[in-house]
Amino acid sequence: xxxxxxxxxxxxxxxxxxxxxxxxxxxxxxxxxxxxxxxxxxxxxxxxxxxxxxxxxxxxxxxxxxxxxxxxxxxxxxxxxxxxxxxxxxxxxxxxxxxxxxxxxxxxxxxxxxxxxxxxxxxxxxxxxxxxxxxxxxxxxxxxxxxxxxxxxxxxxxxxxxxxxxxxxxxxxxxxxxxxxxxxxxxxxxxxxxxxxxxxxxxxxxxxxxxxxxxxxxxxxxxxxxxxxxxxxxxxxxxxxxxxxxxxxxxxxxxxxxxxxxxxxxxxxxxxxxxxxxxxxxxxxxxxxxxxxxxxxxxxxxxxxxxxxxxxxxxxxxxxxxxxxxxxxxxxxxxxxxxxxxxxxxxxxxxxxxxxxxxxxxxxxxxxxxxxxxxxxxxxxxxxxxxxxxxxxxxxxxxxxxxxxxxxxxxxxxxxxxxxxxxxxxxxxxxxxxxxxxxxxxxxxxxxxxxxxxxxxxxxxxxxxxxxxxxxxxxxxxxxxxxxxxxxxxxxxxxxxxxxxxxxxxxxxxxxxxxxxxxxxxxxxxxxxxxxxxxxxxxxxxxxxxxxxxxxxxxxxxxxxxxxxxxxxxxxxxxxxxxxxxxxxxxxxxxxxxxxxxxxxxxxxxxxxxxxxxxxxxxxxxxxxxxxxxxxxxxxxxxxxxxxxxxxxxxxxxxxxxxxxxxxxxxxx
Length: 669
Known about the structure:
By secondary structure, this protein is of the alpha/beta class. It has a domain at about 195-415: Rossmann fold (3-Layer(aba) Sandwich), CATH 3.40.50. Helices cover about 45% and strands about 10% of the residues. The protein contains 25 helices and 15 strands. The strands form 2 sheets. Strands 1-15-9-14-13-10-12-11 form an 8-stranded parallel beta sheet, with helices on both faces. A 7-stranded parallel beta sheet has the order 4-5-3-6-7-2-8, sandwiched between helices. Strand 13, helix 20 and strand 14 (about 555-560) form a beta-alpha-beta unit. About 40% of the residues are buried. The model is unreliable at about 10-15, about 20-45, about 50-70 and about 120-185 (pLDDT under 50).
């Protein structure tokens, strides 16, 4: 039995060892649409929710223009409001590489009479920044290669003892789980009864198979918008959701990532808005998203789907101009796409804007929004919306926890769970690379080996921390790999620029935190690499869900440590429809790239030092500009009303501490 078999315990039947790791192994992305496979049941009652007030007044007017999925307009606004140019890490890295090249040229002139040993050292140093390495394994990247015997035998007796002890512990844990399952049977039965009483019965759902959007009797402007986006046949979640949403019922929907949940709630919203009263403009729909990038993407998709209607949209997220958003909200757009914090800011401080006429509330990635970090904000937003609204919650890992859903004031919601809640896409190949306990320091070298030898384009790498993502961005730049970073320490302009560069193929790697794990839809992503396994399995599903979307092929590679056994077992158990493989990285290749990383350590420190100095200079310039504005425009500034928040400073700090505590609790074993 192999070492990896011991590692995953008794669930090794679904695990294969990767034998071909050549570059040609990367999955070929097939761009074709899938027809919906699951039928839905017919609604015998056909009741329309009487709380809706959309009147029957004909359709909307056509308007031309192709609204592509991009952030060009948003970035132009951000550039216009940027007072001081921001530090560009790529420029600093390029400058450092140029200095290194000049230094090497000078050394070569002096090295003519040096020994052969010194020449070899120079070639190795020059290899640090080389794009192509000659000493590659004959079969590509360690194809079918098992780790060195020396590496395997190191601490063999200790590992054997620990593995046997861990097996005994796992048996005890399994026995404990069986006992606890028996003890909690009554509790589970109680929860089942609660859910039956809370959710609408399954028979309330329509039972018709739709092979095209035309079969749903949607309006012509909506069908033209769908055709423009490229949608041909509705997916399973769209097939179930659209008819129910058109009836005005509350919905709690879940489906795997990349299954078309955004269109599932946008299409019925647009259809109903075509028949809205036009005498008085008002904001009737609110779509909430947990991150700015997801909100921008949802806004872009919705605008494109509505490009043949007169429906107006407004985007309200942090990082963009508050004043420009206030001007748009004064026009009372039909749909507002927002993040919770900025929305509350506008509700309290923007004149003539409120949510009193909101008739539809949608929460994308609702399970994330229902967590403790958003609890107070969501409570404030729900209080601002009418009780008679329609509420729709969607996520790939949607919760059916009644206690959490009660906070949203859902009324007999219809539960539309297309796929099991903890399951990856069917065409995803999941691979795992074992990192031994005494080899945790090899993670950067393993990542660099994977990216230099096998996965050379359209790859997202996820990290747990912003600092790790930023430092690896510098390492990638010094090693000749084009990359962009995406995390919370960047400005909004930098975040959108990184997404556009990666989408357009200007960079091959996107180094991101979990900020990019939810909802982002970038076509053609071939590989997702997890530098660390996330602490929650649902977060792992969101990460790997960035690839293998909409029926395409995809691959994920996760570096697994000894502390990640539980999540690994969950991944294998849930992978009934996907392939699970063990990827082996040759020990000599890890040593090679570890040596390279050690050689460029000082360069990384120099780049970070220069970046810190540039940031301090920029901060000083901003403070100077702020002081000048205070002197020149003091009367205007002090005459503005102070912006308020729904919490005082003490409550805000308490809420922040609760969020931090909940976040840290995820990392406890």
